[in-house]
Design a protein that fits this description.
It is built from nine helices and eight strands. With 219 residues, the protein is of the alpha/beta class. Helix 4 links the parallel strand 3 (70-73) and strand 4. The radius of gyration is 17 Å and the shape is globular. The two termini are 13 Å apart.
């Protein structure tokens, strides 16, 4: 049985990603490494720090030492740290949001990005713009921060979090061709947004699908 090590920056991403592995890669052993100080430190600084980047690098190295066939970075706020670690890691290192960014660029030039944390919003936008440049596509990104939603989630007020995020998503729906949910914690809202005229993309399913593709290439 192959092992995939998933690096999390908080508890909110553990269950949604676990569910996707159960559906897409049920025969894979998933090991979760969760350090909630990572996201807290990024949010406190307002950006990715050298110290957080170093810890991400250490966790990726640890995952490799544990015998993982592949690694999955679960948090967009530290996605650039995962990218920086790739050259030093000898196994596939997948970022949860990378395929989602590619899908967004392919969906249309007007892309809306919704996040509940500013430090996730900014790197997600940079990733989408980088994917657009690689694809040779001109895009326009509209950012929307769901103010108060993240704190509601931390306070255990899931319904309030969902209401704030859904209202934020709907403010973008008539202005863009596709909406990107920048955080795994928002993915559960997708089934309740089927009435929107534009697609809403979330990262857990496409991220784990990317792991499946990477593992297949190892055969």
């Amino acid at each position: 049985m192959r092992t995939v090590v998933v690096v999390h920056t908080g508890p909110a991403t553990v269950q949604p990603i676990k569910q996707q592995f159960q559906q897409i890669l049920p025969d894979v052993r998933v090991v979760n490494i969760m350090d909630d100080s990572l996201l807290n430190d990024v949010m406190a600084a307002g950006h990715l720090t050298e110290a957080v980047t170093g810890r991400i690098f250490s966790y990726m190295q640890l995952g490799q030492q544990m015998g993982a066939a592949a690694l999955l970075n679960a948090c967009s706020s530290v996605g650039e740290a995962a990218s920086a670690a790739r050259p030093a890691i000898g196994i596939p290192l997948i970022k949860i949001d990378e395929v989602m960014a590619e899908q967004a660029v392919a969906a249309g030039p007007r892309i809306g990005v919704v996040a509940t944390v500013k430090t996730t919003l900014e790197p997600t936008v940079r990733l989408i713009k980088a994917k657009a440049a690689t694809a040779g596509r001109a895009i326009e990104v509209t950012e929307a921060l769901a103010e108060g939603a993240f704190q509601a989630l931390l306070d255990g007020k899931g319904d309030l979090h969902d209401d704030i995020v859904k209202r934020t998503i709907r403010t973008l729906a008539d202005k863009v061709d596709v909406i990107v949910l920048a955080q795994v914690s928002m993915a559960r809202l997708v089934p309740s947004l089927t009435d929107l005229k534009v697609p809403v993309l979330s990262s857990p399913q496409s991220g784990v699908e990317a792991v499946r593709v990477a593992l297949e290439k190892l055969n």
